[in-house]
Amino acid sequence: MRARLIVLAAVTGSALASLAWSALAPIRSASRDQIFDIPTGTWARRMSGERIEILPDHIRLTLGVRDILVLRNHDAVPQIFGPTLMMPGQSFRLPFEQAAVYTFSCSAHASGQMTVSVDPYPTTPWAKIGWRAQEFWWHIRLLTAHLLYRYHS
Amino acid sequence: MNRTGARTGPIARRGLATVAVSLVLAEASGAGAPAAFKAGTFDPPRAAPDFSLQGSDGRELRISGFRGKVVLLAFGYSSCTAVCPVTLATFAQARRKLGAAAAGVQVVYVTVDPERDVPERLKKFLGAFDDTFIGGTGTGAQLASVRKEYGVTAQKIPYQDSYAYSHSSFTYLIDRQGRIRALMPYGHSPDDYVNDLTILLNE
Q1: Average pLDDT, consecutive stretches of 10 residues, N- to C-terminus, chain A (153 residues)
Q2: Which ipTM was obtained for this model?
Q3: Phi and psi, residue A80, nearest 5°
């Protein structure tokens, strides 16, 4: 019974410590780049009828943390990627300096447009928790997409 | 200890003050940091695809004809009531802010509306913003080919008794060597253009 109480206290303490850290620790990022890649062979796979969505139609960025959109075309053919036409091997780096919602026409999407939401730097504890939760979810989605791509290729 | 402190204190304070002032000045001037584009940049830059259109000045318009100048290349149409007037007014303001350096900048505006935008109309429309702006027009097929090369979209939409176009609203920045260096999304200020044009003019 006592051992259970100790375990419960340890788990609760860890959870509270994590929450406090998420709410109070300043948000830092090693890079401010949010990178999207067109992998080699994308065009060939699309031509064979495969449906591949590389660039989400809604991208979220955060000022001061991750506010540079980087698009890279590793494929062997030119690609319309986000707002621009990119040659093979070319990258496009677009910085954002104002929190706002930006829409770009993008023929790569069925909707014909891509939206980039640039959020202000999270300053309040709740905003920091929200940002970290979003970041965690984003990495899970990225990992899943990467694994699916590897599985299908 | 106190006497030593009394002798070195002011020196140390002056030294610290000098360092602090230097840091502030360095921060203010951006010393050591490479000038950053406000526009999106390409790496590596590619050569701007050349084209031959009818210029609003009555001559043939080729993008390769502007080597040695920095070119702002935009696509639109003179009947546009939303995007184009704002973009062209921004270009004009940026050129005014550049002063004498503006002589090294050429604005090229290619229409997406060949039916209405004949050279004379383009000249009148562009002249309302800046006399140095040059427009380009051609057949529908010619303009579609140019748009394809530059990744520009334009879609004709019926509007009341007439029609309008939904078109790409960004601007290409082409350097003196004729390479597409950057793409400025719609909505940036004249100061952002001045920043990027200055970088390209100083290369």
Answers
A1: 88 87 78 88 82 79 92 89 86 92 75 84 87 83 78 71
A2: 0.74
A3: -80, 120
